[in-house]
Amino acid sequence: MLKILYFAGLRERLGQGSEELELPAGVSDVAALRDLLAARGGAWESLLTLRNLRYAVNQQMARLDSPVQAGDEVAFFPPVTGG
């Protein structure tokens, strides 16, 4: 199982803050996971279109080519501004 977290405006757009997903064969990095989720269509496509989307694997900042494996926690979050 893979735990996936969605933060800030992304959480609101998707209508959920987290989910658990059985890691499909062929998904071995953050980019492949992002593409798999975006393929759901609708609001999920924002995972491909949001500018400066950030990623973390097991609470460490990650890149699209960072590996993922069963048991990992992967977080997606857009840049957040404050004031």
UniProtKB/TrEMBL annotation:
Pfam families: ThiS. Keywords: Nucleotide-binding. InterPro entries: Beta-grasp_dom_sf, MOCS2A, Mopterin_synth/thiamin_S_b, ThiS/MoaD-like. The keyword Nucleotide-binding applies. CDD domains: Ubl_MoaD. Belongs to the MoaD family. This is Molybdopterin synthase sulfur carrier subunit. It comes from Candidatus Accumulibacter phosphatis. The lineage of its organism: Bacteria, Pseudomonadati, Pseudomonadota, Betaproteobacteria, Candidatus Accumulibacter. The gene is moaD.
